[in-house]
Each structure stands twice: as C-alpha cells, then as structure tokens.
Design brief:
Length: 101
C-alpha cells in the first residue's frame, strides 16, 4: 500500500496522455523527462530518474554506435526503450506500482 500523502503526477487524464506521449514523440530522446518531473514533484525517489538517464545514455550510445544501417539491433533497442519509457510514465500514478516511490 502506497503512503497516504503521496503526491500525484497527473491531475487529469489528458495530462497523463500528454506525458506518456512525450517519450514516443521525441523518439526516446526525452524518455527520462517525465521521471525527472516526477522526482521534482516527489512522486518517485530521485534515484529513479538518475538510473533512467544513465540507461537512456547507454541505449542512445548503442543505437548510434550500431546505427550504420547494417545492424537492426540498434532500432530494436531504441524501440524497446521508447515502449518502456512510455509504459513507466503511464504507470507513475498507479496504486499497484510501489517500486521506486
């Protein structure tokens, strides 16, 4: 059970949709932005966006290093990161998810 006074990330459903679309529309470049905003609001612990930024840098580094056209793995890794970032953003206010909060 989450703490009683935990702040909410999203005030409306439209805000949740817009924040969830951010990692998708930016093609993963802004994947950590919703988690940084959540840490500023006190929704998640500050270590969560720090780890997310590190993972984002690794994913983007792998995508750039392998992105010469011969390796489909680069695109797959980037797509998986985009999906993961959007899913984690959508779940920020979920009462069932307590990890990192």
């Amino acid at each position: 059970m989450p703490p009683v006074g935990r702040p909410k990330m999203f005030n409306t459903r439209a805000a949740q949709v817009l924040w969830t679309l951010l990692p998708i529309v930016s093609l993963g470049l802004a994947g950590a932005v919703p988690l940084v905003a959540a840490a500023v609001k006190g929704v998640v612990k500050p270590v969560v966006p720090a780890v997310y930024i590190a993972v984002e840098l690794v994913v983007l580094g792998v995508a750039v290093a392998l992105g010469d056209g011969d390796h489909p793995v680069a695109g797959l890794v980037l797509i998986l990161f985009i999906i993961t970032a959007a899913t984690h953003t959508a779940l920020l206010d979920s009462e069932r998810v307590t990890f990192g909060k």
